[in-house]
């Protein structure tokens, strides 16, 4: 004899399974469709070159070499990797997101550097707020903030209307030599091998002349350098 109840239960179970699979397929379709339909505007600066950018809201600026910036269309949130100078027009607000913190700015002229373990923000004019995990620090025009390994230093005064790197000078505050060597690699398209990665460096170097840059870095710190065949540099203690 046929067990009609058992057959009915199996049929209902198969129907329920098919319904669940169908619902999962529909959900997956809409998720994938939404992800794929998101359009982005992205700018990237190659090694040893800067790149200008401009968005529809009038925000414009320059990416330092090796940096990139990305934003969904019609969004005021910009994802930055590396360093960039921003000019935000009147009545426009943007948020610059980095892996070290965010910067909310309105009608501002400011620079953000987010390489390595540090976040360094210079605000030349307008309103900017540096947002960290546990605090928000406002910057007026002519002020800068250095965040070293997640710890905010005191707000400091600055001069000028644009970052020094636009004029060919890289400036660092309390960064490791590892960060400096990575910047040398980006600026001069060289491989840099260092035995002093953990040493701390504050200073400047010229990014138009490699030998001059190496002298500016190594001499104050009593380090030596060698330029080897194959675009390779070794930095060591004297």
Termini separation:
95 Å
Q: How large a portion of the residues is in β-strands, by DSSP E?
A: 35-45%
Instruction: Please provide the count of β strands.
Output: 18
The secondary-structure class comes to: alpha+beta
Give me the strand/helix succession: HEEEEEEEEEEEEEEHEEHEE
How much helicity do the residues have? 10-25%
Number of helices: 3
- Mean pLDDT figure: 89
**Overall 3D geometry?**
globular
CATH architecture of the largest domain: Sandwich
| Tally of domains | 2
CATH class of the largest domain, named Mainly Beta
How would you describe this protein?
- The longest helix is centred in the N-terminal third of the chain and has 34 residues, at 4-37.
- Helices cover 24% and strands 45% of the residues.
- It is an alpha+beta fold.
- The chain has three helices and 18 strands.
- The radius of gyration is 25 Å and the shape is globular.
- The model has no long low-confidence stretch (mean pLDDT 89).
- The strands form three sheets. Strands 1, 2, 3, 4, 5, 6, 7, 8, 9, 10, 11, 12 and 13 form a 13-stranded mixed beta sheet that branches.
- A hairpin with a 2-residue loop joins strand 11 and strand 12.
- It starts with a helix and ends with a strand.
- The protein has two domains: 40-160, Jelly Rolls (Sandwich), CATH 2.60.120; 168-237, Phage tail protein beta-alpha-beta fold (3-Layer(bab) Sandwich), CATH 3.55.50.30.
Keywords for this structure?
238 residues; alpha+beta; Jelly Rolls; Phage tail protein beta-alpha-beta fold; 13-stranded mixed sheet; three-stranded mixed sheet; 3 helices; 24% helix; globular
């Amino acid at each position: 004899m046929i067990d009609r109840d058992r057959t009915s239960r199996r049929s209902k179970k198969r129907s329920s399974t098919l319904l669940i699979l169908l619902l999962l397929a529909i959900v997956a379709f809409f998720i994938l469709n939404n992800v794929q339909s998101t359009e982005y505007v992205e700018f990237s600066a190659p090694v040893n070159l800067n790149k200008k950018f401009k968005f529809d809201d009038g925000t414009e600026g320059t990416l330092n070499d090796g940096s990139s910036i990305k934003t969904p269309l019609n969004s005021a949130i910009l994802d930055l990797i590396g360093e960039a100078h921003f000019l935000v027009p009147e009545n426009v607000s943007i948020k610059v997101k980095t892996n070290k913190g965010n910067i909310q700015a309105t009608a501002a002229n400011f620079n953000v550097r987010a390489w390595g373990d540090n976040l360094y923000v210079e605000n030349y004019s307008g309103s900017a707020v540096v947002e960290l995990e546990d605090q928000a620090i406002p910057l007026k025009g002519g002020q800068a903030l250095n965040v070293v390994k997640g710890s905010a230093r005191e707000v400091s005064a600055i001069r000028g209307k644009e970052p020094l790197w636009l004029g060919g000078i890289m400036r660092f505050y309390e960064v490791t030599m590892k960060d400096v060597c990575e910047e040398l690699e980006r600026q001069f398209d060289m491989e840099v091998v260092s035995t002093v990665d953990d040493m701390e460096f504050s200073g400047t170097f010229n990014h138009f002349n490699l030998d001059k840059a190496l002298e500016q870095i190594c001499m104050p710190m009593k380090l030596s350098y060698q330029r080897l065949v194959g675009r390779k540099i070794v930095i060591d203690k004297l």
